[in-house]
Amino acid sequence: MHLDEPLSDKEFNELDKFLMSDRVGDDGMTMDALHGYLTAIALGPEMIPMSEWLPLVWGLPDAAEPKFKNEKEMQRITQLIARFMNEIQITFEVAPQEFEPLFCVLEQNGKELIDGETWAWGFWEGMQLREEAWEAAWESAEIGPLLQPIYLLGAEEIEEEELKFVDTPEKCHALALSLEASIPAIRRFWAPLRKSGVTTVKREAPKVGRNDPCPCGSGKKYKACCGAEPTLH
């Protein structure tokens, strides 16, 4: 199975069943939390290796792994999560307008309302992996306000005076809609700044021209001294 193939419904349910099992921790991520978590990692300020973000998915003490039945099951579940991440990344790259958060829906007084708290919590957890780097977004006059619904719905703790913004399902529904609408702008903010994690070597000294005096002090031109082509034997 190629890692760039989206999960089928059967595979989605397979991963969902594993994450809901007692082999992961009480703080382990459900599918909607995982989708929010991976979304934050996929569009955030820099690439994060799977080896760093995967342990938080399980929600186990001391970053422990689940009790897989065998090596084959471990590889299978890990591959499904990797493909779930790739699906998000490919959507952002190829058809960002088609991206949709994996929100839950609840029925309240005969109306269907979006429950985005678990997704937002996952996104918030993804932000915490690079909390300092995300400060640039918080300080942006354009993006800072767009992060507020994520904070209100997903943060472990909010200020007491902010509870009035999330004290009814209807208010949380409105915040979830606002959150969804903000994702494209958040992605555009980070896209040109996103770091790959690969260190770029900066040349401190100016480049020496081939006809310039060699910096070694020999008095010869650079091309006839240290810049000479090596001789092949």
TrEMBL record:
Top-level lineage group: Bacteria
UniProt-listed Pfam families: SEC-C (PF02810), UPF0149 (PF03695)
Provenance organism: Undibacterium jejuense
NCBIfam families hit by this protein: ygfB_yecA
Protein name: UPF0149 family protein
Entry-linked PANTHER family: ADENYLATE CYCLASE-ASSOCIATED CAP C-TERMINAL DOMAIN-CONTAINING PROTEIN, UPF0225 PROTEIN SCO1677
Database matches in InterPro entries: SEC_C_motif, YgfB-like, YgfB-like_sf
